[in-house]
Design a protein that fits this description.
The protein is α/β, with parallel strands linked by helices and 217 residues long. It has 3 domains: 55 residues, Signal recognition particle alu RNA binding heterodimer, srp9/1 (2-Layer Sandwich); 69 residues, 2-Layer Sandwich (Signal recognition particle alu RNA binding heterodimer, srp9/1); 77 residues, Roll (2,3-Dihydroxybiphenyl 1,2-Dioxygenase, domain 1), CATH 3.10.180.10. It contains 6 helices and 11 strands. The strands form 3 sheets. The chain has a 4-stranded mixed beta sheet, covered by helices on one side. Strands 5-8-7-6 form a 4-stranded mixed beta sheet, covered by helices on one side. A hairpin with a 2-residue loop joins strand 2 and strand 3. It is elongated.
């Protein structure tokens, strides 16, 4: 989360730290005058950083992907993959680790950000020991206009067959996505006694089958 003043960083830190866990102490770092990383009481992690007002404009809250363990070193590859999948995309900043920043390997990503479909994401590699990786607790929803779009994103993103269920999938980096029709609520509400079991049997969402179930008596 980008903050405009030290006071804002401190205020947010105080609220989020309550019953939480500090991952990197709130302090001055080479990349920011005021930065800290913590996990709140619900287990969601936050990075609070004092940003430079003259920098490129970004949303206040930007989801960040941390590539650790066997996935460490894949952040730049993943960014380029997502940029190729989503037509409305843009590369932002890219900073690599250099020599002397071990255990991180020179050339891996210290920080990068990129935009897909008008939403900014950040990503980093970390060779430090972490007891987490990507899982279904965090997912990105892709709202699709029609079946053609659903088929496109499903075919591009899905890489773990056993993770496919009810429009959910995992990509080759372990990141979870939900590929659904933009009118999913409407489709499901017409005849829920029929549409719900139909949807629960699906891997990829098939709009025509949901519409058919919605008309059944």
């Amino acid at each position: 989360m980008g903050c405009e003043t030290k006071e804002e960083v401190n205020e947010l830190w105080e609220k989020l730290e309550e019953s939480g866990e500090v991952l990197m102490p709130l302090d001055k770092y080479p990349f920011s005058e005021r930065y800290g990383w913590l996990k709140d009481k619900y287990g969601l992690s936050w990075q609070l950083i004092l940003t430079k007002p003259e920098g490129d404009e970004r949303p206040k809250i930007v989801p960040s992907l941390l590539f650790v363990g066997k996935k460490c070193g894949k952040a730049e590859e993943a960014m380029n993959f997502y940029l190729s999948v989503f037509k409305n995309s843009e590369k932002g900043n890219l900073i690599h680790y250099d020599k002397g920043q071990e255990p991180n390997k020179k050339g891996t990503v210290m920080f990068e950000d990129f935009m897909i479909e008008n939403y900014w994401l950040a990503a980093m590699d970390s060779a430090l020991e972490h007891n987490f990786t990507f899982n279904e607790a965090i997912s990105f929803i892709v709202n699709c206009e029609n079946q053609k779009e659903i088929d496109y994103y499903w075919n591009k993103l899905s890489a773990v067959p056993e993770a496919e269920q009810c429009g959910w999938l995992k990509d080759k980096y372990g990141v979870s996505w939900q590929v659904i029709p933009e009118n999913m609520g409407e489709l499901m509400s017409k005849n829920p006694d029929k549409t719900t079991p139909t949807m629960l049997m699906m891997k990829k969402i098939i709009i025509a089958d949901l519409m058919k179930a919605g008309k059944e008596n």
